[in-house]
């Protein structure tokens, strides 16, 4: 299951997003005694996420002897969809049928369950059009208009002068003004408008989307098929997941009629065949400098992995007693993120991959200098990163963040932050006190204790036992030193911050009460909040500077290489190319396809136990099903956000549905190395076979194959 990368914790403020690039030379194979000076960057280290603004026609011609015209790209663009604000999808019939992943549709699908139904357990198929169920709040977006707005935005930024904050504000104002202006244009009216940043500011575009809000569930397999193998099989191959779902767009109460769709080709996967994935990759960081990648390797990634592991363990212990689907989803997300981040950190710790990034950095500098571009930006980024390193511990461990501190301590830290802010500026009290209305409502005391104990242990390891915040947390009222778990239990037992009457008293007492009350958790929150207030200001300024430097480097990249190097992913529509190809793994060879026979082998091998358990309707498969293809691999370049992307051939036929990458693909967040990087897709032939032999979904089979 592809997910958006969680390189950082979602606390108050963005820590660092970065820059740099890759190369146009060929890569050397790594050796046992690596000499970084001899390593060369690969030709596609920056990936293949081409934009529809500047389609790679010549590259496709030279690489595949295939020259798609403007109409080919236009039809692909219009058949491609953005599924809500987190996945990709596509039209696959003339009657508004939409294909996406099961893991993208899971929440929407279960949301239409009726009393007594469990669609995760039973799956869903609408045998008639009347049975298709509308999903409230769900929408899909079709990109219909593109306008280059680079000059307008860049001129506005330049006019702001040297002040970095003013530059950022000027850019945002230009975005807002352009949206207002285009909203009134006749051919843009009624569209959802979005400004898209490419090359971190090297180019800008305005996209206009036609939004469809009447979207109805048609087909969704059981959870045990859509997520077969669960977390153990996640990011692996060979794979056996029927990770697909189908919806239908309605227009004025009737199925949408469209000529823009990908016709199913159930037999279209062959070794070496060119494949194209069209979708909305969420975020990559391939433009980052080596200094930034080393920072990520040393600080954010290790800290994030520790956080994900301890919080997932706490939630699993809690869910063993309550057995909640919502908590189970939290655990899935944490485990998914942990596995993804582990693979990315392994890539960052690979000296060969970092040497490839360094090789491009040298080449980029040389090429830019020949074009008269200053190299000062690289030095400024390194200086900025060094300053961010110094802020990391306070900004990370003292930030009001529920996943890190638990809800109650987050509330205490927020109050401490407000207390210090109001002391410095009393005029903000009326605005700040609204936070006091949002008192914590934790799931359970045990879970709060587990989160807070983990936070204290992590803070102690990072800040040291003599740190004032850590010392205050672990020192009892009689001066005794407590363990992190003892301290968490004692502080949560003593605090009154979950009491509505106590919080109302604080509100009535004003800033003075907030700053002097002796509630033990609030007192600790004041210690942490004071430091976070100070470091937050520093990080805010450093982050603003980083945005400006990032834009400068992105502009340099675009001015040096143009569109020969595609921009980083920004959850905007892209097309990427690859071929169907196996790869060596585990001492053997990965096949290009898997079959339903393998699904049953895996099920029997694990004794029909979760997460390899199959629903009853799958118990006695017909022999014909067993030899049908189920999943396949290709060298396409995908990342989180590409979930639900169709994989098509040169004839614009759907041959698969991308849903994951293998373990070797995980460093793809910062470098694309296609040697063993593989996209894992559901085979369209497998989708048809499952519908035909198991679900008896004849209506859907006919629609997809006619």
From TrEMBL:
Keywords: Aminopeptidase, Hydrolase, Protease, Serine protease, Signal
EC identifiers of the protein: 3.4.14.-
InterPro entries: Pep_S46 (IPR019500), Peptidase_S1_PA (IPR009003), Peptidase_S1_PA_chymotrypsin (IPR043504)
Pfam families, alphabetized: Peptidase_S46
Signal peptide (UniProt feature, chain positions): 1-27
Keyword Hydrolase in record: yes
Similarity comment text for this entry: Belongs to the peptidase S46 family.
PANTHER family assigned to the protein according to its UniProt record, in alphabetical order: PERIPLASMIC PEPTIDASE SUBFAMILY S1B
Function as written in the Swiss-Prot or TrEMBL entry: Catalyzes the removal of dipeptides from the N-terminus of oligopeptides.
Protein name as annotated: Dipeptidyl-peptidase
């Amino acid at each position: 299951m592809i997910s958006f990368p969680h390189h950082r914790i979602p606390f108050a403020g963005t820590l660092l997003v970065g820059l740099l690039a890759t190369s146009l030379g060929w890569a050397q194979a790594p050796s046992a005694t690596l000499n970084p000076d001899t390593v060369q960057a690969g030709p596609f280290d920056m990936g293949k996420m081409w934009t529809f603004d500047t389609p790679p026609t010549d590259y496709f011609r030279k690489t595949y002897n295939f020259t798609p015209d403007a109409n080919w790209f236009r039809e692909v663009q219009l058949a491609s969809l953005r599924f809500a604000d987190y996945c990709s999808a596509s039209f696959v019939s003339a009657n508004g049928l939409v294909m996406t992943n099961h893991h993208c549709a899971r929440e929407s699908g279960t949301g239409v369950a009726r009393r007594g139904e469990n669609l995760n357990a039973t799956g869903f198929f609408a045998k008639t059009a009347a049975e298709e169920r509308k999903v409230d709040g769900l929408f899909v977006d079709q990109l219909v208009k593109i306008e280059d707005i680079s000059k307008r935005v860049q001129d506005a930024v330049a006019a702001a002068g040297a002040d970095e904050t003013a530059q950022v504000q000027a850019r945002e104002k230009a975005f807002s003004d352009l949206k207002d202006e285009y909203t009134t244009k006749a051919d843009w009216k009624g569209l959802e408008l979005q400004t898209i940043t490419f090359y971190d500011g090297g180019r800008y575009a305005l996209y206009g989307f036609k939004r469809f809000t009447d979207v109805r569930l048609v087909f969704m397999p059981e959870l045990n098929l859509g997520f077969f193998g669960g977390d153990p099989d996640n990011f692996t191959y060979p794979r056996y997941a029927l990770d697909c779902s189908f919806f239908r767009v309605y227009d004025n109460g009737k199925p949408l009629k469209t000529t823009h769709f990908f016709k199913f080709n159930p037999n279209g996967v062959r070794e070496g065949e060119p494949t194209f994935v069209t979708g909305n990759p969420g975020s990559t960081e391939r433009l980052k400098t080596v200094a930034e990648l080393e920072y990520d390797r040393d600080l954010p990634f290790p800290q994030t992995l520790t956080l994900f592991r301890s919080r997932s363990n706490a939630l699993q212990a809690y869910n063993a007693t309550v057995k909640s689907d919502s908590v189970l989803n939290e655990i899935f997300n944490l485990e998914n993120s942990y596995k993804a981040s582990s693979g990315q950190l392994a890539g960052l710790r690979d000296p060969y991959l970092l040497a490839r990034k360094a090789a491009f950095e040298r080449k980029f500098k040389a090429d830019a200098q020949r074009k008269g571009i200053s190299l000062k930006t690289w030095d400024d980024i390194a200086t900025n990163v060094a300053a961010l390193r110094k802020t990391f511990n306070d900004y990370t461990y003292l930030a009001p963040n529920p996943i890190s501190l638990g809800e109650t301590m987050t509330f205490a830290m927020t109050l401490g932050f407000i207390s210090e802010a109001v002391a410095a500026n009393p005029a903000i009290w009326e605005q700040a006190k609204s936070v006091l209305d949002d008192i914590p409502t934790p799931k359970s005391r045990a879970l709060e204790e587990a989160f807070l104990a983990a936070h204290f242990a992590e803070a102690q390891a990072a800040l040291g036992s003599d740190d004032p915040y850590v010392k205050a947390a672990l020192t009892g009222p009689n001066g005794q030193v407590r363990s992190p778990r003892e301290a968490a239990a004692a502080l949560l037992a003593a605090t009154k911050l979950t009491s509505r009457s106590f919080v109302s008293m604080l509100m009535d007492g004003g800033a003075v009460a907030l700053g002097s009350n002796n509630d033990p958790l609030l007192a600790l929150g004041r210690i942490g909040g004071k430091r976070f207030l100070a470091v937050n200001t520093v990080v805010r300024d450093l982050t603003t500077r980083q945005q400006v430097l990032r834009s400068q480097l992105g502009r340099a990249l675009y001015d040096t290489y143009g569109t020969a190097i595609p921009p980083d992913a920004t959850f905007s529509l892209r097309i990427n190319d690859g071929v169907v190809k196996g790869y060596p793994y585990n001492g053997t060879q990965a096949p290009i396809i898997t079959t339903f026979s393998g699904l049953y082998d895996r099920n029997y091998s694990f004794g029909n136990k979760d997460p390899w358990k199959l629903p009853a309707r799958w118990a006695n498969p017909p022999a014909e099903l067993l030899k049908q293809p189920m999943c396949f691999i290709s060298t396409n370049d995908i990342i989180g956000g590409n979930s639900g992307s169709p994989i098509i051939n040169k004839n614009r036929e759907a041959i698969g549905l991308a849903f994951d990458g293998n373990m070797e693909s995980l460093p793809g967040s910062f470098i694309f190395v296609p040697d063993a990087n593989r996209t894992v897709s559901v085979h369209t032939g497998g989708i048809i076979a499952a519908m035909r032999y198991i679900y008896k979904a004849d209506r859907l089979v006919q629609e997809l194959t006619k």
